[in-house]
Amino acid sequence: MKKNRLPFEMVYQLVALVLSIILVHLIYVTLIRPNAEALLEREAQLAASGEAYVPERSIYIVLRDYEQESCFMLMFWAIAIMGFKGRQTLRERTMLSEDILKVNEGTSILPEDARQYIRPLQSLSPEVQQYLLPRALIAGLLRFGSTRNVHDVSEAVKSVCETEADRLETELSMVRYIAWAIPSIGFIGTVRGIGDALAQAYKAVEGDIAGVTASLGTAFNSTLIALLISMVIMFMMHQLQLLQERLVLETQGYADLNLVRHMQVRGDAA
Length: 270
Hints:
This protein is mainly alpha-helical. It has helices at residues 2-49, 59-63, 66-94, 114-122, 126-129, 132-147, 150-171, 173-199, 201-205, 210-258, 266-269.
C-alpha cells in the first residue's frame, strides 16, 4: 500500500493543478477580464471627453493581469494539496480514540505475548496498516518480543514517529515552493509594470499620463494580490503542520498509555 500511495498522490496533484488552471482561467475569461476591460474603456471615454471623473477602484481591475491569474492558480493548487494531506491526517487521528490493542486494565504484556497482540493489528485493512499508529505499535511489539526490554519498545515507537515526522515535513516541500513562488510572481508583475511605465515616460512628459498610471497600477496590484495570497497559504500550511505534529505526539502518548505501561518481563512481574 505504501508503494501505491506515492503514485496516487502524484496523479492527484497533477489533476488538481490542471483543474486549478482550467477553473481560474475560465473565471478570468468569462468574468474578470471582460468587466475590467469595460471599466477601463469607460474611463478612457470619460478622459477623452474632458469630463472630470474619479477613477473607479474596481476589484476587476485589480485582478485582471496575468500575474494575479497565475497566483490564484497556484493558490488553489496548494489548497488542494494541503486538503488532501489534512484529510489523511484527520483520518489517522480518529484511530487514537479507538482501543485497537484491546488491553484490559491491569493486564500485563509479556514478551511471549507480543505476537498475540500483533495479530489484531495485522488483520486491519492494508490501508489502515500504513497509518502511523499501527506501524508504531507493531514496531514496539516486535522489539519487545526480540529484546525483552521495555525501554527498547519506547525507543522503537519514538523512532517510527520521528521518521514519520520527517516524512510529513518533506512532503510539504511543494507547498513551501508554491508559497515562495507566489510572491515571486507578484514581483515579476511589479518589474513588468514599472518597465512599461518607464517605456511610456515620454508620453507623461507630453501630458498623457494614462499609460504610465495603468502600468504602475499593474505593478502594485500584482504585488498586493501575491502578498495577500501568500499570507493565506502560509497560514493554512502552518495549521496543517500543527495538525501533523499533534498526530505524531499523540501517537507516542497513545503507545505509552496503552502499550508500554502494560509491558513486563518475568523478572519484573515477580
